[in-house]
């Protein structure tokens, strides 16, 4: 009996259900965070600052500038600063791009499992092909409110296309594992922020920011400032709609881990 039970738990069907439930849980978590951020999107100061932070963090530019300033103002730390920036510039992109093309998760504006599948429901909420709200997201609440303001009281038609169940045959991050509902352009486009075409997981800006902050903070009294900047960069990726929350959390965890490795190597 014990052997049979163990065999059932380890069967491909049981493992597939477990992985499917984990993926669905991730979708619901991302949806919850994204819904909460809708209240912040459209606030001009947050929109503009998020766009500026993302631009500065493109290709690790802000960290290179910080390293240059620190090397010039503290000659005794010049060598360690150069090594820290070199480690970040080589290690972070390598890890980021490797994972992106292993997981291959679509961006929120390419395929949006979170905005289409509300927690606890097996079908997508009402939606419309026209985006609403400051970030251009599709959502039943925003669209319904928009129609009421326009004087229309007719219900929004529910699309007949069913949301596919996350597939667990093969890679979880393959195209089969994600619904493919197209999304409008993200908020950043109106501020001149480039729209990435690469896969979504992990957030490269976040990974690089936390790696650089962790390495540069070693023995530096300005360490908390570096971590605060890394946090702001991470938030900007969510605010602009370029990433899901789990992309940013994953990038943060991997950036800190890579930065700790860098600290040990550069001692």
Features of this protein?
mainly alpha, 267 residues, 10 helices, globular, single chain, disordered N terminus
List the topology elements.
Layout lengths: L1 H8 L2 H26 L6 H14 L3 H13 L4 H26 L9 H4 L23 H10 L54 H13 L6 H17 L5 H21 L2
Helix pairs in contact: 3-9, 4-5, 5-8, 5-10, 8-9, 8-10
Count all strands and give the number.
0
Report the end-to-end length measured between terminal Cα atoms: 55 Å
Number of folding domains?
Answer: 1
Largest β-sheet summary: none
**Alpha-carbon Rg, integer:** 21 Å
In terms of per-residue confidence, which ranges show pLDDT below 50 for 5 or more consecutive residues? 1-9, 112-184
Percent of sequence in beta strands: under 5%
| Bulk shape | globular
Structure at a glance:
By secondary structure, this protein is mainly alpha-helical. The chain is built from ten helices and no strands.
Description:
Helices cover about 55% and strands about 0% of the residues. It is built from 10 helices and no strands. It has one domain. It starts with a helix and ends with a helix. With about 270 residues, the chain is mainly α. Helix 8 runs parallel beside helix 10. The longest helix is centred in the N-terminal third of the chain and has 26 residues.
